[in-house]
């Protein structure tokens, strides 16, 4: 019998440590015999990757940005995430809609009510009850002070449009995440991302073990390289 799919998103400000841990978590699930779809937003399909390049590099007004991000999300959901969940995969997604509320809503100050309307439209998918939309089963939220994230990223790569924003922008983004977490406390697993890599890994895998998704032994043997 096919195991039900699991949808896990990873969130946090730029430089919080998501990418460092996602690969290791994918390896841990694979070690348990689970198929994993590792993907990201904006992006994850050829069309959505084209939209990503525009969103991350081209100047545009806040509504245009929000519409492009949700267009990319719709394509990603229909082409990749829904089929993977139907196959029974574990879907690990580097960012999802909480990022839109945090960056476009918190960071840019875009209307949260309008984002909620777009969220309802875009995340309505076949096979779910009419009053439900697709949301991650769990959101691993890397909570980190913007000053520490900036320090970790300094000189690491050429900053994109968002990474080049001042620390005040990331304070608003961080507040946006905190607000979303307060609205869905069951879905969010808060990680103290200021800890060292090993301690961050332990917090992530503990959250997976608590849900019964990962065996303690597999969690104990893995971790970021
Ligand atoms: N716990 C940690 N302690 C110290 N440094 C860390 C830790 N986790 C990750 N780093 C380092 O911080 C930097 C940013 O990490 P990473 O790329 O994983 O962040 P990210 O959340 O994926 O960022 P982005 O969203 O901008 O891609 C990297 O140089 C990484 O090696
Ligand atoms: C999904 C999503 C992303 N963003 C921003 C956040 C980051 O700065 C970039 C993506 O870069 P990463 O290195 O892959 O993390 O895009 C956004 O503003 N709104 C969103 O919905």
UniProtKB/TrEMBL annotation:
EC number: 2.7.4.9
Binding site for ATP: 12-19
Molecular-function GO term, any one: ATP binding
Any GO CC annotation of this UniProt entry: cytosol
Residue intervals of the Thymidylate kinase-like domain: 10-204
Database matches in InterPro entries: P-loop_NTPase, Thymidylate_kin-like_dom, Thymidylate_kinase
Catalytic activity: dTMP + ATP = dTDP + ADP
Superkingdom of source: Bacteria
Keywords: ATP-binding, Kinase, Nucleotide biosynthesis, Nucleotide-binding, Transferase
GO annotation terms (biological process): dTDP biosynthetic process; dTTP biosynthetic process; dUDP biosynthetic process
Functional note: Phosphorylation of dTMP to form dTDP in both de novo and salvage pathways of dTTP synthesis.
HAMAP family, per the entry: Thymidylate_kinase
Family indicated by similarity: Belongs to the thymidylate kinase family.
Protein name: Thymidylate kinase
Gene (UniProt): tmk
